Amino acid sequence: MNQQSQQKSGIGGCAKFGIGCFAVILIVGIVSGLVVRSYWRTWLGDGAQAVAVQAINDSSLTEEQKQGMIAEVGRLTEAFKNEEVNADDLGNIMNEIAGSPLLVTGMVMFVEQVYVESSGLSDEEKADARRTLQRLARGIFEETIDPRKAEDAAAPLMQTDAQGDQSLKDPANIAPEELQAFLANAKALADEAQVPDEAFEPDIVKEFGDAIDRALQKAGKTLPPANQAESGE
């Protein structure tokens, strides 16, 4: 799978799974949908940052990961307000994220947090489900599992509206057998791809920061690391 097709699959998967885990996607969405006069850069940067920080704090990230992500969001929004970064740069950052472990990990976190943790599965079954989802995420990221097959595997969790658009069902409307069917599909994909039965936990903060830096470097731009940006060094 080439980088372009991987990015398209990633963005499509993000929309299908309803992921809002990563702040840059929120920022890009707000930037692309609003035109504000006068102090629009300051207002938009602050508003997007507040939404992003809230999303991060509401996630299942560890406290250390939350602080790292918030610092990365801070340096990005500050650069945007200072006109060091523009809307095109934010779009390029989103493309970088689509080809990184961030998006896939976000999908795993979302399904685990919303569907698995709130389910009636036993603690042992939930642990098995988490490992299955980690294996699925790793297979997609390492390109041993086709993202389209992963989308097909999620069919038991999906619903189709009158326009033919698909979305995830409300967790309250998911029958136990539907969740089990999805997990069985995911495990079958991981087994077929011979994904190791071990934890897959990429460094979320590093991947986010690296995605920002890679995108900006392509435009000939650089930003100081998050800790320097925050302290003004």
Report on this structure.
This protein has 233 residues and is mainly α. It is 67% helix and 3% strand. It contains eleven helices and two strands, in the order ααααααααββααα. The protein has helices at residues 3-17, 23-33, 40-57, 63-81, 87-98, 101-116, 123-141, 147-153, 176-192, 204-218, 226-231; strands spanning 158-160, 166-168. It has a two-stranded antiparallel ribbon with strand order 1-2. The radius of gyration is 18 Å and the shape is elongated. Mean pLDDT is 76; it is low at 1-43 and 228-233.
Keywords:
single chain, mainly alpha, 2 strands, disordered C terminus
Summarize the structure.
The chain is mainly α and 233 residues long.
Provide the helix percentage.
55-70%
How many individual β-strands?
2
Distance between the termini: 41 Å
Catalogue the unreliable spans: 1-43, 228-233
The portion of residues forming beta strands comes to under 5%
Query: What would you call the quaternary organization?
Result: single chain
Number of domains: 1
Strand order of the largest sheet: 1-2
Briefly note the structural class of the backbone. Answer: mainly alpha
> What is the tally of helical segments?
11
Major sheet: 2 strands, antiparallel
Rg computed from alpha carbons, rounded to a whole number of angstroms: 18 Å
How are helices and strands ordered from N to C? HHHHHHHHEEHHH
Tell me, rounded to a whole number, the average pLDDT. Answer: 76
**Which shape, going by the Cα principal axes?**
elongated
